[in-house]
Design brief:
35 strands, Udp-n-acetylmuramoylalanyl-d-glutamate--2,6- Diaminopimelate Ligase, Chain: A, domain 1, globular, UDP N-Acetylglucosamine Acyltransferase, domain 1, homotrimer, 321 residues
């Protein structure tokens, strides 16, 4: 089974991808995966000590990394030592998945009436790509686009003017009008004349009972996935960047933004217009005040506020000064 | 005349809705309304001392409330004493209006050309539901959806890719591309396995000469309405939550957000990216600086700034420290 | 050649526009332009000392201004002295360009298949106006609207649900789903009963290799143009107001907002949810921290943060206090 049905994949021997590196085993790369998701024949990458616990347990046979990090990787993993991990990762991922760096519009779309879904109701001009699955009793609003290979569970209500691509949606999910899910995230290797667009081979996973309000944008993952946990609710105009993982039973108010790769716990509530920086870990039962800017990890059960967000106690003390 | 044409209503005797409560009069509930809007045979709710002035003048025959608030209500109003007012309100409103808790896409939409409006111009793929009224000399852009029972006045310009539902729009209103009006707001009773979605039986009212720019979201009211006063202008990507009331002649700059149920006066100007918390009262002629976060009521004629927003004088003093 | 192909223009003698003013030369106005763009037979305006360097070099024959500014203008320029420059400018621009103050939806749209573009691929329900140019190897997604006279270069990828009007797009540009470009900006002369909408006769120019993510809004210029420089990338839900000019090689993260008429240098990076006030000049190589509010000009190579944004050094010192 292909691990990635959304993007055309080309097969490469590891030596073809890195012709200047000497490998002890010359095998065909199966996929590009994050440290924890990689299997034996996969290529992974490791560029920050922050992830050393994942690094020393990776099953990947090949890992793009830097000289100073090689001791954190298992012995059996072949180290591909480079100066710029993300740049090399982008380059080879683009070779393997040549159409993952730009959201080429799906030109296989057809009116849903030509697809003959059973027990699915729909409005006008609903456009559906190849191999889309839609569960029974789901309803799809007018002018909505569901691109190829997307899966939507049963009892889902998808509004009008919605666009969904590269996404798996479980059961009983509500997505309101005009929300956009699964597009490429904001990632590139800067270059003076023409930036190198970072391939995005991940997807979005939306679990059971999630509700997403109007005008949200949820980018798919770059190498890993973006994921929203069960029974989490998002208000209007929320922006979720690539690779963000939000736990279950969270409440995310309007216009909140998440930068890339942050991991949010369960039962987290976030007030309107708050922002969460990239690569953070927010614990369970955390409350983030509206308008706050979170730039550091937050432990379980904390209430934080302000910019940069601090504990509410400290925030109120600072205001008294 | 039905008080609510947007949602199917079922008829219930009060005793059927609250079988454990003893009532002195067993009558059929006419509607669910806020304290001030309720008429004799309506059910209302009262859950905060903040609204005691409305409570003691309500005409409602039945009111869901808590033990400690019953003395604020008129003698003739029967008190339905519960632990959690909003939870009980949600439960019975869902019984009375069973389709108001999810935005089921309108499947009655037809191309506008089949509706035979007089003196209305329109683009391609304009989809219009049953009983929609559109006044003369109004123009509707392409790919716009106007769901059942919406009313649009005369001389209105509605852009392309707009979605309007559960809304009354008066005359000479401009709505730019991609704005979404009338969808369900962000409200639910949290529950571990599956939240209980709060029914939204209110509508949106947009008064004469309003201009709403591109990509805004304006949620309909939950029990009450969301309303925008005459000659108020909204910039792009503004988010207005349920039950918010904005006065006349206001200027709301880009990316401003309003949490639920706040009441904004007349001639209020709000700078870009500012946020207004829920259940606040902002006076007339108030100016709110860009990027501010307003968390308290603001009296008439004040200029406020910062997070939390304070008078501009105090804000500048704090910055000097 | 008409200088403005997007809006119908009417011809006026200067004396007809300002019947109470005595002119030494009575000629037909060619166009309305900003101080630096105006040519001999154009009408311009000058209302702030901030622009005196542009004023004293203008080639315009006629300039709307105030009494205290007339000495900054060249001798040959006829001064039209008024109390409120913008109000008079709005009035006469509306006479000259009567359809530029409201975004009347383009009713000339036809399915792209009827336009016979060569080497252009497209999805379903792509609607294209008169005189639209699309370069070879460009791809247009479904439900996208491209209004009359828009130009799109070659090798561009335009997503689905996009709306583009009054815009010139160069080559190799990527625009993701649901972004709206070229709509009227947020400008009006307030008036109690009915505001006077400021005509917007400018356009949007998007240069080579730009990438714009999902759900952005980019307003066209009022008198001047809005412009995005080469190889600049915008993340999701960015809002760019009228007349903003962004340089080349910039990185603008999600939910950033720009108020009108600011000029941003090259290689500027701006973190998520930051805001830039109107009429500012941000230098080259500036970095603006996420969530910041910039209210003053920023010189080249500065790193700024906070609200109001100050140098990062000062920001950190303030936090220590």
């Amino acid at each position: 089974m292909s691990s990635n049905k959304f993007f055309l994949k080309k097969n490469f021997y590891i030596s073809k991808l890195f012709p200047k590196i000497k490998f002890s085993k010359i095998i065909e790369i199966n996929d590009v995966k994050s440290l924890d998701k990689a299997n034996k024949n996969d290529l992974t990458f490791f560029d920050s000590k922050k992830y050393k616990n994942l690094a020393n347990q990776t099953k990947a046979l090949f890992c793009i990394t830097t000289k100073n990090l090689i001791n954190e990787l298992p012995k059996k993993t072949e180290k591909i030592i480079v100066n710029n991990v993300l740049s090399e990762l982008a380059r080879v991922t683009k070779l393997i998945y040549p159409f993952s760096d730009i959201d080429y519009p799906d030109l296989s779309l057809k009116d849903i009436s030509k697809h003959k879904y059973k027990f699915v109701k729909y409005g006008n001009n609903v456009l559906v790509g190849k191999n889309v699955k839609i569960g029974k009793n789901s309803i799809i609003g007018s002018n909505t686009i569901i691109e190829h290979d997307v899966e939507i569970g049963k009892e889902c209500i998808i509004g009008s003017g919605v666009i969904i691509k590269n996404t798996l949606i479980k059961d009983n999910v509500v997505i309101q009008d005009n929300t956009k899910i699964g597009q490429k995230g904001f990632g590139f290797i800067p270059s003076n004349k023409e930036n190198f667009k970072f391939p995005h081979i991940g997807k979005v996973v939306i679990n059971d009972n999630v509700e997403i309000a109007t005008g949200c944008t949820i980018d798919r993952g770059s190498i890993d996935d973006t994921e929203i946990g069960e029974n989490t609710y998002l208000d209007n105009q929320v922006h979720i960047a690539h690779n963000v993982k939000i736990g279950s039973n969270c409440m995310i108010a309007g216009q909140v933004g998440f930068a890339g790769s942050s991991i949010i716990g369960n039962k987290v509530s976030i007030g309107g217009q708050a922002g969460v920086s990239g690569h953070l870990r927010i614990g369970n039962n955390v409350k983030i005040g509206g308008g706050s800017g979170v730039v550091n990890d937050v432990e379980d059960n904390q209430v934080v506020m302000g910019y940069p967000a601090v504990s509410i106690k400290k925030f109120l003390q600072n205001k008294k000064k």
